[in-house]
Design brief:
Elements lengths: L4 E7 L3 H12 L6 E7 L4 H10 L4 E4 L5 H12 L6 E6 L2 E3 L3 H12 L3 E9 L6 E3 L2 E4 L4 E4 L14 E3 L6 E5 H6 L12 H11 L3 E12 L11 H18 L5 H14 L4
Parallel strand pairs: 1-2, 1-4, 2-3, 6-12
Antiparallel strand pairs: 4-11, 5-12, 6-7, 8-9, 10-12
Length: about 270
């Protein structure tokens, strides 16, 4: 029997986005997956709206907003023992029906000791890429997505190594996520995915980009859009935290200035 995958979808207030995401998941071609919807203490109407459309959804309602890391960690703690892989999925995405089957092809090719990420386009039905692999260079204050804004012409269509997988859609084995102690909850938003991948790399758990697995992302829906000031502030703060954790010898002021520049000219979230 093929391994079971649990897709954890984290909801906070934006019920329309979540409903559209769940509708796309209904069309997924896969024999052994389930969905866990984790609600980060949304307004009551948000959950009610979702339950009207999906009355049988497996739902975990949290007592407060734990952020991205905390909400997903609590979702992970809630999953059943028969699950072998976890797919963390933003609620503001639309998935291709074959996105899981292509992840499974990646698992067959490389094995389970990897973190897998898909090709991600801007909001459906865009053909422009939002994530085509990730670059991390803390010395230059750089964290950005490859090919961002480019129209997909299949020039990056091969499975390959990447330096990080975005938490917008991330597949990892249950054992490895447990080994890594989940997401670091000191990151409330932005860079918690990068931190997970950097910690994984130290344990020889590498990242793979699987471009045949495809989804569409409504960019930065929870923070006011791709170019919002709130997003930049959170992102720069998270880069500072990454430097302190993973390369404390770097000059924090210099990295801050570099990250401000790169946040403007390499914006990806």
């Amino acid at each position: 029997m093929i391994p079971k995958i649990t897709i954890i979808v984290l909801n906070w207030n934006r019920s329309n986005d979540t409903i559209n995401c769940l509708k796309s998941l209904e069309a997924v071609n896969d024999e052994n997956f389930k969905i866990l919807l984790v609600d980060n203490n949304s307004k009551i109407d948000s959950v009610k709206n979702i339950l009207l459309k999906f009355p049988n959804i497996n739902l975990l309602q949290l007592d407060k907003n734990y952020g991205y890391s905390g909400g997903n960690n609590r979702g992970f703690e809630h999953i059943s023992n028969d699950t072998e892989f976890i797919c963390f999925l933003n609620n503001d995405v639309i998935v291709d029906p074959n996105f899981l089957s292509n992840f499974r092809n990646g698992l067959k090719q490389f094995g389970e000791n990897y973190i897998f990420g898909p090709k991600i386009y801007f909001e459906y039905p865009s053909e422009r890429i939002w994530y085509g692999g990730g670059v991390v260079n803390l010395q230059k204050g750089q964290i950005y997505h490859k090919y961002i804004g480019q129209k997909d012409n299949n020039h990056n269509s091969k499975n390959c190594k990447t330096e990080y997988v975005t938490g917008c859609c991330l597949l990892i084995s249950k054992n490895n996520f447990k080994l890594l102690n989940g997401f670091d909850e000191s990151f409330n938003m932005y860079a918690e995915d990068v931190d997970l991948c950097l910690r994984a790399d130290k344990l020889n758990i590498k990242c793979k980009y699987i471009p045949n697995s495809k989804i569409w992302h409504k960019v930065s829906a929870s923070t006011g859009g791709r170019f919002s000031i709130q997003k930049y502030i959170k992102k720069i703060s998270s880069i500072q935290k990454l430097v302190k954790i993973h390369n404390s010898e770097l000059n924090p002021l210099l990295i801050t200035l570099k990250s401000i520049y790169n946040s403007i000219f390499h914006s990806e979230k």
